[in-house]
Amino acid sequence: MTTMPMTRPTWRTICALDEILPDTGVAALLGDTQVAIFRVGESDEVHALGNRDPFSGANVLARGLIGDLGGVLVVASPVYKQHFSLANGVCLEDAEVSVPVFPVRVFSGAVQLAQPVEYPADTQPRQRLVMIGNGMAGMRVIEELLRIAPERYDITVFGAEPHGNYNRILLSPVLAGEKTVAEIMLHTPEWYAEAGITLHLGEPVTAIDRRKRVVRSAAGREVSYDRLLIATGSRGNRLPIPGAELPGVIAFRDLQDVSLMHAAAEAGQSAVVIGGGLLGLEAAAGLRAQGMAVTVVHGLDVLMERQLDPYAAGLLRRSLEARGIQFVMNAMTVAILGDQHVTGLRFKDGREIPADLVVMAAGIKANIELAKAAGLQCAHGIVVDDTMQSFDPRVYAVGECAQHRNRVYGLVAPLWEQARVCATHLAGSGHLRYQGSLTATRLKVTGIELYSAGELSLVSGSEELCFRDPEVGVYKRLLLRDQRIVGVLLYGDARDANWYQELMAGRVDVSLFRDVLLFGPGHVANGVPTRQPPSSVPTP
Ligand SMILES: Cc1cc2nc3c(=O)[nH]c(=O)nc-3n(C[C@H](O)[C@H](O)[C@H](O)COP(=O)(O)OP(=O)(O)OC[C@H]3O[C@@H](n4cnc5c(N)ncnc54)[C@H](O)[C@@H]3O)c2cc1C
């Protein structure tokens, strides 16, 4: 196999970063080629694509609007309005069409461009990519990679679970009986076969030999790699208490857990959920919807304390109680009771409650043992840099098993961003950097609208805007600092969540319309209020 020498790009300074207005593009000439350079928001994230719109033939992309389309940063052609991914230049409406992507960077405040490194097709080596973990983050990388560099790798995927890749977020509606397993499948085994990917399901990888560049599976299979992608996600945290390993004690993480919960519900049993966080409450609501008697045990007196303040947590608790879910608050579980099977729980104060099923939803733990055993640098997750590369340059990690700038994420939105960056680097056209994400939480319990993002506590220098209507159960709270939103909490009406998130992510100065901010985008146009706050509702 021939290996191409890496060529260093020659960078040319185009302009100062400040000369490009946020969320707009400029055109530049690189040799004979017109290049469109885009700046994302007010950040130093820049992208460069060929300026020629392939549909109209006109050099116009620099004048296109940029935005987020289903999690993909795009520019819309001003002529026929097709969207092109800023990461890989592929047209979203027609994946056969793309525009070239140019390496671009910000260096000492200046925007610099380089010519893309061209590999002659006949000398470009086909490499071997092995992915460990067939979950949401890893498969997003593979999808993106197949779009931008379909010929670059022979891909092998190992999955510990016996299923194709499914939308884990939707386990809650499956548990509640609102969706079927088939409805949450993202990639069936047939999809992998059609894409030319070798898939080993129900076959966890048990060792990585970085010297030989080989992974070994539980079935004894050995597969060599040129690049390795670790996407092993995480698992439910098992409390280190007596009885935690008893049959009938489960986590809420995968399809197998859901089928165990369905079986318990069919037997008409009672369930206790340990943990009043997002996962615990979704599990409790799902089990209750299946007809089980459900009690949630929480160590504090506020539910979802990392996302909610006591007032919103109280509204949520009352709404769940109205569905028949019981709560034991401020309770520390010290033992799970039972001999052959779980029969109940004991708390620190000596109280005991019965249970036929215990769901532990007390946090998650990254699956990093494999990476650690292979000598990769790990802390809470596998430590990666801004390109999602681990300390071994051949090994990348994405998703809940990865630790980036001291953070391990447990929600999908950041993982999509990581996947996009990782794919461009695996494709060899890597010029994107992952710089961390803003996270937001939505509870997926039908009939309860809840959204929380950013900061929650009022600290010196921040101020709050608040709206409460106990009659209809609506509560909105915004935290501001320097006239910019730094925290959003919406209960009972989360229709405007995306608007608040955009204002927060864009660090938009809201001073001109803060009087109507709580009433949503319908009261604002072009950054100024268009209507007075409604007079029939309590004023903030
Ligand atoms: C019930 C539930 C509800 C959720 N709701 C939301 C939500 O509303 N919003 C949100 O943003 N996020 C939500 N999440 C979180 C979201 O699902 C995760 O952040 C996301 O799935 C993580 O993706 P991942 O690829 O890192 O891990 P996973 O999707 O867990 O995939 C990792 C895969 O790797 C496999 N694996 C592990 N070790 C090995 C090995 N050695 N060999 C082979 N395979 C291995 C695992 O079995 C698993 O299939 C929810 C999660 C759950 C469980």
What's the short story on this structure?
This protein is of the alpha/beta class and 540 residues long. It has 9 helices and 38 strands. The chain has 4 domains: 12-113, 3-layer Sandwich (Rieske Iron-sulfur Protein), CATH 2.102.10.10; 126-235 and 365-426, FAD/NAD(P)-binding domain; 249-362, 3-Layer(bba) Sandwich (FAD/NAD(P)-binding domain); 449-529, 2-Layer Sandwich (Enolase-like, domain 1), CATH 3.30.390.
Report the total helices: 9
Assign the CATH topology of the largest domain.
FAD/NAD(P)-binding domain
Structural class: alpha/beta
Identify low-pLDDT runs.
Answer: 1-6, 536-540
Q: What is the highest CATH level, the class of the largest domain?
A: Alpha Beta
Largest sheet geometry: 5 strands, parallel
Instruction: From the alpha carbons, calculate the radius of gyration and give it in angstroms.
Output: 25 Å
Count the E strands. 38
- According to CATH, the homologous superfamily of the largest domain is FAD/NAD(P)-binding domain
What is the CA–CA distance across the termini?
68 Å
Mean pLDDT: 90
Molecular shape: globular
CATH architecture of the largest domain: 3-Layer(bba) Sandwich
Q: What portion of residues is helical?
A: 10-25%
Bound molecules: flavin-adenine dinucleotide
Q: How many domains make up the 3D coordinates?
A: 4
Could you give the order of strands across the largest sheet? 14-11-10-18-30
Strand content: 25-35%
Q: Oligomeric state of the chains?
A: single chain
Write the layout of secondary structure elements.
Layout: E1 12-16, E2 25-30, E3 33-39, E4 46-50, E5 65-69, E6 72-76, E7 83-85, E8 104-107, E9 110-113, E10 127-132, H1 136-148, E11 153-159, E12 165-166, H2 171-175, E13 185-187, H3 189-194, E14 198-201, E15 205-209, E16 214-217, E17 222-224, E18 227-230, E19 234-236, E20 249-250, H4 255-266, E21 270-274, H5 278-289, E22 293-297, H6 310-322, E23 326-328, E24 333-338, E25 342-347, E26 352-354, E27 357-360, E28 364-366, H7 369-373, E29 382-384, E30 395-397, E31 402-404, H8 412-426, E32 440-442, E33 450-454, E34 462-469, E35 474-481, E36 484-491, H9 497-505, E37 524-525, E38 528-529
Parallel strand pairs: 10-11, 10-18, 11-14, 18-30, 20-27, 21-22, 21-27, 22-23, 29-31
Antiparallel strand pairs: 1-9, 2-3, 3-4, 5-6, 6-7, 8-9, 12-13, 15-16, 16-17, 19-28, 24-25, 25-26, 32-33, 33-36, 34-35, 35-36, 37-38
Helix pairs in contact: 1-8
Bound molecules: flavin-adenine dinucleotide.
